[in-house]
Design goal:
Layout (H helix, E strand, L loop, with lengths): L21 H20 L2 H8 L3 H8 L2 H8 L6 H9 L6 H14 L1 H16 L1 H23 L4 H21 L10 H17 L1
Helix pairs in contact: 1-2, 1-4, 1-8, 2-3, 5-6, 5-8, 6-7, 6-10, 7-8, 8-9
Length: about 200
């Protein structure tokens, strides 16, 4: 008596299911899609199409666009947590919180390396710069601007960002003295009133 041979299972058409490398392939597809379209115009469905997977898998691994952006761009911090720490407190102390949180991202060796890498990516690629600008605006600058309130909240917050990026370049990249070697506490004491002036002035 002979046993009938079984045919190998046929793979159903459509998007491929998740596998060991699926998460990494989604991240790669997200990085490419963010670079091409920017943060605002990128959707999870577009990333799923680029990765060749079902959109539900992207939701499964990342939950939403913010999480996917943070992973794809290899950010050294979660921008949403940064914004939450900044707005958690009274308005008269907002300038000090902004300076403290921002410089705190740079103070460790690992944080400094990651922040420098992010800056290099921004200044060497127009696509990355656009994506980072849109993403950071969405997750940090807009929540802080809402906390600041009118008038000219977005302009004020943008000026704060410009001021602090300049300080970071001076202290951590160019190493200009005496800013580079000043203790963090006194540096914050000097900067906090200037940043508060952007908020209240």
């Amino acid at each position: 008596m002979t046993t009938a041979r079984r045919s190998p299972p046929r793979r159903s058409p459509g998007r491929r299911p998740g596998g060991p490398d699926t998460r990494g392939e989604i991240v790669k597809a997200a990085r490419e899609t963010f670079a091409e379209k920017g943060f605002a115009a990128t959707s999870l469905r577009a990333v799923a199409r680029q990765a060749g997977v079902d959109a539900a898998l992207v939701h499964h691994y990342f939950g939403g666009k913010d999480e996917l952006f943070i992973e794809a761009m290899a950010l050294p911090m979660d921008p949403r947590q940064v914004a939450a720490r900044i707005v958690d407190g009274p308005r008269p102390e907002l300038g000090r919180r902004i300076v403290t949180v921002f410089l705190g991202l740079w103070e460790s060796d690992d944080g400094q390396q990651r922040m420098k890498a992010m800056l290099r990516s921004v200044v060497t690629s127009d696509e990355v710069a656009r994506t980072m600008r849109e993403g950071i605006t969405r997750m940090i600058l807009e929540p802080v601007a809402q906390f600041v309130g009118p008038p000219d909240a977005k302009l004020r917050v943008s000026l704060i960002a410009s001021h602090l990026i300049g300080v970071a370049l001076t202290r951590y990249v160019a190493g200009l003295e005496p800013v580079a070697s000043t203790e963090l506490g006194p540096l914050i004491d000097h900067l906090a009133p200037a940043i508060q002036q952007y908020i209240d002035g």
